[in-house]
Amino acid sequence: MFVASTYVKKEMFLESEPDLVIIHANELITMNTAFGAPRKGESMSELAIFYDGAIAIKDDRIIFVGSTDELMSKFSFGEITRKIDASNKLVTPGFVDPHTHIIFDGTRENELSMKLKGKSYLEILKEGGGILKTVRETRNAPIEKLIENGKKILYRMISYGTTTLETKSGYGLTTESEIKILKAIKVLNEVHPIDIVSTFLGAHAIPTEYENRANEYVDLIISEMIPRIVKENLAEFCDVFCEKGIFSIKQTRKILETAKRYGLTPQIHIDEIVDTYGAKLAADINAIQAGHLLKSNDEGLKAMAEADVIATLLPGTPFCLMSNEYAPARKMIDLGIPIALATDLNPNCWTESMQMIIALACYNMRLSPAEALAASTINSACALQRQDEIGSLEIGKKADLIIFDVPNHNFLPYQFGVNLVSMVVKNGKVVVDI
Ligand code: NIG
Ligand code: FE
Hints:
single chain; Urease, subunit C, domain 1; TIM Barrel; 2 domains; eight-stranded mixed sheet; 16 strands; binds N-(iminomethyl)-L-glutamic acid; binds fe (iii) ion
């Protein structure tokens, strides 16, 4: 059994009668931050497990985590306490999905047959498909439609265990349509129990009307979009799709340095298809997280390790692009880079399921189930700068958790392609009960 000193400090919570207790969990994975946040290297495998574990919740907060015996001796339950027996079940922190693109209109299932015929992602984009097709449809969609589309995705996400996510603009590429998308995100955050962190990704593609005038589009982002978005308080992070033929290193640096001056935290899509020295840039500009990283060179990866940039790995994307090449996760862990996992949900790679991503990470990037779970909870909370609130089950933190109908965490990748969730608790309330 794991006992950490941090629990002892917060005895004051024991005064209150819990609203909800979960007892007899076969494994209760706390992902305690005593092992570091973010976890790196060997500590990525430290789950801080209680066997026959229990947790008590008051309002939206965790007031006790420990063994069932200890919980029983510490609390007396009145009528109001709901008790959930988690015998033979696994309890984990709620999944934090730190990189998604959920606000768009139109779908791209037609691109599957192009990919089957060997067309590459960048070829499809060059022909006006890919991101540019989604941009045309999203520009034409009213905000109400975008909100409805987003709600469907959030409904699936929460039923698969995601309790917090990051999502981006990037399918508007005009000031007004980027703002429309960010406003849709804001509405969804207000009306849906999932917490949503918002990112401005005006630099997702060069819009058709700026073809061969990419620098002018970068100027528009810098001089008009970022100031408006910051003024209207519509984003916390700023992202760029830095890739050969999309935004160059120089343009990316310019955009993210401006974003920083305006108070937005930088993150980047880098080195997905070609190594453009994106990893080095991520370190230089102190990005909080960088996504993809399939082609990053060792020098860049070492710089990321030194600068503590979180590598957000997105194994759903090479899977959907029918590639056999995945990000070198083992090398990154050996270098001490903290790893997070995300769905990257977008019209090219459409999955709401972090369970699917955990399976892909284990089978195709050779993460252990424990590492994949750390990457989907505490480390992904760090990628969103939310580690003080979420990502682990500790006294005082938000009561966001998942009860899985499996006996241990090794089942998460092992029994794949199905939803293993039994219940999801968000902000202290049972929001999914399957
Ligand atoms: O992270 N690479 C850039 N952006 C997304 C894909 C967006 C799209 O294809 O619509 C990604 O994979
Ligand atoms: Fe992405």
